[in-house]
Structures are given as structure tokens and as C-alpha cells.
Design brief:
Blueprint (H helix, E strand, L loop, with lengths): L11 H8 L6 H9 L8 H12 L2 H5 L3 H5 L6 H21 L9 H12 L6 E7 L5 E9 L9 H10 L4 E7 L9 H16 L3 E8 L5 E2 L7
Parallel strand pairs: 3-4
Antiparallel strand pairs: 1-2, 1-3, 4-5
Helix pairs in contact: 2-3
């Protein structure tokens, strides 16, 4: 049966408008995105099948183009739409950080970094620039590397901090493997960066590593 033939109170779109998006299941949310099903399957049925094949929403949202487009009922147009939605969500989060709000806790920082950097296929090194009251000036993804490493240039970070008139920084990078254990290179970079920033009277508040679960704070872990 097509969704249009369902009682109005059971249709995902109508339920979302009446009760809010949080009231819908993963399959129902995906069905609204898909809009239509395929022969013999409603959009909800198709969404359930897709989620099962990809192991849930996270697997679908991080799927490569080839795997995504190979699924019946998806394709390049849907992949492009999904990437646009994900990028809008990332930019919304970044914009919410650029309104002069002070960071109140390491947990808030960790939550933002996890939502931004987890599940990226390449290693990203990002910097949060803060003023003297620890209000966010800018969040920038400054360097990208292979799945194993990123070329991080301390001079470029310091230069950007001075351009923004920052007083403090938080840096972060992801481990695409999901393992949060810091490498010797991670620790060496952190110490080198802190020493360089100190000469410019800039403070390095923390270095987070993003993998599976909660991001690891090297400051809290006594990493340097």
C-alpha cells in the first residue's frame, strides 16, 4: 500500500509536522528524504531495507558514492541530496559556534568535535580560535591528510591565530580508524604547538582526538 493511502495520522510527513521529527523512527525519517518507494515497496519499506543493508543510519550516511548509488531506489541524485543535507548540518553547527558564545565546558567542545570530525574518511586537523574570554572566534579545518596522517604546519596555525586576534586555541584531529589512542607523533606535535604558541602569548587549551565514542582530551588524559 502506498503511503498516500495510509491514514493521515500514520503518514511520516504528517506525523513529523504534528509531533516533531523526534517522534519518527529512523526508517520514517529516511522515507521522508526518499519521498517515493519502488515497485512493490513504499518509501518506508524501502527505507527499512536500505538501513538493514547499511547497518543503520550511520552506515548509510557515511557510505561511499559507489555503494550508495548501487542500491535500487537510491542513485546519484539522492547521494548528492544527502551530501548537501550533511554539509548544511555541519555548517549549522559551525555557525552556532561563531556567535560569540563562551565555551562553558570541555563536554560541549567534545560533542561538537565528534559531530563534525567523526566518520570522516580522511584525517582532518581542525582548530577552534578563542578570544580572552574563551568565546569562539572561528572554527576551521586547517589541514587534511591521508587516512594515516595529516601534514600540520605550526607556523600556519600561529599565523591564523594572530590574524584573528585570538588569545587561546583548541585543536583536534580525527582518527578514521576509530582508535583514539594518541600516537607518539600526536604528542610530539601537541608539545611543539604549545611551545610555539607560548612564545606568541597564545594558550593551547586542549587537543582532542576524535574516534569511536567520546573524543579523547589529551589535557585531561595528562598527554602533555
Amino acid at each position: 500500500m502506498a503511503i498516500s493511502d495510509w491514514p493521515a495520522g500514520e503518514r511520516p510527513r504528517e506525523r513529523l509536522l504534528a509531533q516533531g521529527a523526534q517522534s519518527l523512527s529512523d526508517a520514517e525519517l529516511l522515507a521522508i528524504f526518499l519521498r517515493v518507494g519502488v515497485r512493490g515497496k513504499s518509501a518506508v519499506d524501502l527505507a527499512r531495507d536500505v538501513l538493514q543493508r547499511f547497518g543503520g543510519l550511520r552506515g548509510l550516511l557515511t557510505a561511499q558514492s559507489e555503494a550508495f548509488c548501487a542500491e535500487h531506489g537510491l542513485g546519484p541524485a539522492k547521494f548528492a541530496q544527502l551530501q548537501a543535507v550533511l554539509e548544511m548540518a555541519r555548517r549549522h553547527l559551525a555557525e552556532s559556534w561563531s556567535r560569540g558564545e563562551a565555551l562553558e565546558s570541555p563536554r560541549r567542545v567534545a560533542e561538537y568535535l565528534r559531530s563534525t570530525l567523526r566518520d570522516r574518511s580522511r584525517e582532518i586537523f581542525a582548530v577552534v580560535f578563542l578570544d580572552q574570554r574563551h568565546r569562539v572566534l572561528r572554527f576551521e579545518e586547517m589541514f587534511q591528510g591521508t587516512i594515516d596522517s595529516a601534514n600540520v604546519y605550526v607556523r600556519e596555525i600561529a599565523k591564523r591565530a594572530l590574524e584573528l586576534n585570538a588569545a587561546a586555541l583548541i585543536v583536534a584531529h580525527n582518527h578514521p580508524s576509530g582508535v583514539k589512542e594518541p600516537s607518539a607523533a600526536d604528542l610530539q606535535l601537541t608539545r611543539r604547538l604549545e611551545d610555539a604558541l607560548r612564545l606568541l602569548e597564545l594558550r593551547l587549551l586542549d587537543h582532542f582526538i576524535v574516534g569511536e565514542g567520546e573524543p579523547l582530551s589529551l589535557r585531561e588524559a595528562g598527554g602533555w
